[in-house]
Design a protein that fits this description.
alpha+beta
């Protein structure tokens, strides 16, 4: 069964809307961005606050809650936009394999464990590689690449 942790009342009603409002105003909260991705069936833009991880010169989106709607949409669209204030960055998304995720998950947990650590089954940035490998399938990761320019 696919791993998914539904957001609680506080997250849905207070935390995410507050972070989203600040991010839309141009204030990044711990690396926050607004992710926009087209819905897999409707084709309409959907948005969610996300943490943009910069690791070894590349950018990644990690899904701490697992198989979320934005993950399912991203797998179909393979592209989206990241917003910070009025700045809109279109991108192409490439899903990272489970074996490639290990150092990315470690970096993500090092930076955001206080915020999202509860979703990682007791695994932390200091956990052995075997523990990270065990949870890797539960947490989709996408590498963000520059979108080809329209000509």
């Amino acid at each position: 069964m696919a791993y998914y942790r539904r957001p609680g009342w506080f997250t849905k009603t207070i935390f995410n809307p507050t972070v989203a409002a600040m991010t839309r105003a141009g204030i990044s909260v711990w690396g926050s961005r607004i992710l926009r991705v087209k819905g897999r069936t409707s084709g309409e833009w959907r948005s969610a606050p996300v943490n943009l991880l910069k690791y070894e010169g590349k950018q990644y989106l990690v899904a701490p809650r697992g198989q979320t709607q934005w993950v399912r949409n991203m797998r179909v669209a393979q592209a989206g936009e990241l917003l910070l204030g009025t700045k809109v960055e279109p991108f192409k998304a490439v899903e990272v394999t489970d074996s490639e995720k290990i150092p990315i998950l470690r970096a993500y947990l090092k930076k955001w464990k206080a915020e999202v650590g509860v979703f990682f089954s007791g695994v932390s940035a200091d956990s052995p590689e075997a523990d990270l490998r065990r949870i890797a399938p539960d947490h989709p990761v996408f590498r963000i690449e520059e979108a080809p320019s329209a000509r």
